[in-house]
Write a structure and sequence with these properties.
The protein has 251 residues and is an all-alpha fold. The protein folds into two domains: 92 residues, no CATH class; 139 residues, Butyryl-CoA Dehydrogenase, subunit A, domain 3, CATH 1.20.140.100. Helices cover 71% and strands 0% of the residues. It is built from twelve helices and no strands. Helix 1 packs antiparallel against helix 2, helix 4 packs antiparallel against helix 6 and helix 10 runs antiparallel to helix 12. The chain is rod-shaped, with a radius of gyration of 32 Å. It starts with a helix and ends with a helix. Keywords: ATP-binding, Cell projection, Cilium, Coiled coil, Cytoplasm, Cytoskeleton, Dynein, Microtubule, Motor protein, Nucleotide-binding. This is Axonemal dynein heavy chain, putative. GO terms for molecular function: ATP binding; dynein intermediate chain binding; dynein light intermediate chain binding. It is found in: Cytoplasm, Cytoskeleton, Cilium axoneme.
Length: 251
Amino acid sequence: MFKTIRKLKEDPKLDSVCAIAEQIKEELEEFKPYVPVVVGLRNGGMRDRHWKMISDKIGRTVGPTMRPFTLEALLSKGIDRFPEEVAEVGDRAGKEWALERQLEVMKGEWENVYFDVEDEYRSTGTYILKGSEEALNMLDEHIVTVQAMQFSLYKKVFEEEIDAWAEKLMRVSETLDEWLKLQRAWMYLQPIFDSEDIVKQLPSESNRFRSVDQKWRKTMAETHENSKVVEICATEGLLEKFKTANEVLEG
């Protein structure tokens, strides 16, 4: 602005323009003290709780319910006398908002993550999990992210939601680990116990495998109907079912 005015003054024909520029400069200088307040209040993360914080700090009720809700009205409440307090609340609002959005983004990303269980596995009449690599990679990344969120100084408002999501991701991770472990065992044993000779030679082992095989087929049929990773892996009792099945096969 200063350079612009200086150049305008060099040309007498632009005196009127220069006068307007000078006026704008003066108005900007007058507005300058309000900038920290405006920046703080304009934070996209401002919620009712933040307006209450500001109201408590300045001793006057301010917020979106004011009529009119304008900068002039806020200034009439004396909010400009508390620039540091307003900036502090605005900064908190922004950081809380960042956590909130981060959580929403993570949840949203899982909406389109599915297992591939479309095709029957080798004429067995059942399915196996495919496409688990993407889920495993996302789980590793998101678990690290949500654990970092649990240590954030600004987590309090969303603490229950963050903890619940962290717990859900951990359960999904544990379930998927047990599931893939069982799948490896099932894929190895299925062709073996598909032989009548083996069944006759190893009746006890065959019975153990058959009990697991029945549960496997039921679970995979359900997964074929709903293959959304987070939903199926968070199913109550599924983790325990896989753990038991793995113990049966290992025993």
